[in-house]
Amino acid sequence: MILIPCSVQAMPEGGDKSYMEWLYCEYRRLMYAMAWKFAREPEDACDIVSESCLRLIEKIQLLKTLETPQLKSYVCMTVRNTAITYLTRTDRGMIAMDLASEDSLPIIGCESPEEQIILQDELDRVWTAISQLPDMEQSIMRMKYDLGLSHNEIAERTGLSPNNVSKRICRARNHLKTRLYAAEKGSL
Questions:
Q1: Are residues 138 and 93 in the same domain?
Q2: How far apart are CA 106 and CA 39, in angstroms?
Q3: CA distances from 40 to 27, 37, 72, 87, 139 (A)
Q4: 38, 96 contact by CB (below 8 A)
Q5: CA distance 102 to 162
Q6: H or E element, residue 147
Q7: Is residue 78 domain-shared with residue 145, that is, in the same domain?
Q8: What's the CA gap between 96 and 88, in Å, rounded?
Q9: Is residue 126 part of a domain?
Q10: Containing structural domain, residue 159
Q11: In angstroms, rounded to a whole number, what is the distance separating the alpha carbons of residues 188 and 185?
Q12: 125-140: pLDDT as tens digits
C-alpha cells in the first residue's frame, strides 16, 4: 500500500486530487531518489517529497498539459529545488549549494533544451541505479565519477589495491548495465 502525502490527501475530492494521487504513485520513486541525492536522513527525504507535492499542487493545471518526458523533468526539478530550499533552511545548506551547482551544469554537446532534458533524465537513471549498488561499489563509483579520483587515489582512501579498485569498478559497471537494461526491457 502506498501512503499518499497529507498535502494530497487534504485536497478536495475530484479530478485534481485523483490526478495528484496518480502523479505521486507514478513518480514517487523518482521523487525519493532525487530527494536522497540531497538528504541523508529519512525524515529529510520525506519532508522534501511532501513539500514538493505542495509545490506541484500549485502548478497542477500546468502539469496536466505536459507530455511524459517534460512532466518527469518538471517533477525532478521541483524536488531538486525544494531540496535546496529545504536544506538551505537547515545547517546542511552548504552541502545543498554544492550539490545544486553540480546538478545545474549544462551537459556538453546538447544542441537543444529537449536533448538536455533527455540526457539529464538518463543521467538521473544512472545515479539512481548507482545508489542501489552494494555500499563498496557505490562508494567507489561516486569517488570515480563524482569526485573524479584516479584508481590510485581511490585505493588510498579505501585501503584496496589499485588493481582491486579497477576490478570493482568493472563489476559495478556490469551491475549497472544489468539494472539499466532490465529497467528498459521492463518498460517496453
A1: no
A2: 23
A3: 20, 8, 23, 11, 15
A4: yes
A5: 27
A6: none
A7: no
A8: 7
A9: no
A10: 132-188
A11: 5
A12: 887 888 888 888 888 8
